[in-house]
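tool=predict chain=A
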Amino acid sequence: MLSEPKWVGWARELQAIAQTGLHFTESGYDRERYRKVLEISIEIFANFSGESSALIRGLFNNQAGYATPKVDVRGVVFRHGKLLLVQERSDELWTLPGGWADVNDSPSEAVEREIVEESGFQTKVERVLAIFDRSKHGHEPPFPFHVYKLFMLCRLEGGEARTTMETIGVDFFGENDIPPLSTSRVTREQIQFCFEAQKNSDTPCRFD
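tool=predict ok
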């Protein structure tokens, strides 16, 4: 299990402290202190990631309220022993279909929606395979927010392959034919786990 660099966790925690503090404090003095903490977090991310302070600040300015992990859902769909992957338009690399869970979607509704939107296939969730902490699985690049990734095995029910505004490719791949992956979204170890779980229905849910 590969962990992120320590600076990512430190900067992410500073951002969460600042976000939560700005939400709850009624003191103008404390508000100013929390803004300074937020600026420190922004500078750490910008310095180590190579991104601009303006970009990081824009991401953080969109966050409000008590800071909690974000939820990313990923659909695991097999056909004749091959795994469904989609090719992202943003980086032209491949991943399990999925994305951020939307408000008012249950986890199963979120992943079923993401699969049809990104691949054209209708599915039905059968079981949860894993709940991964993104920061502990070698995803690149590091992400400024804490993320839980839900991997769900889904039964193929219909539809046909089609690309969308987000994807430029849709296909099923064998275990030994996996294309270059978008490691921000999924790792090769996670793909291997999906094949292992598909072969053994008694595989327990993985977590962390």
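The mean pLDDT is 95. Helices lie at 6-24, 28-49, 53-61, 107-119, 188-199.
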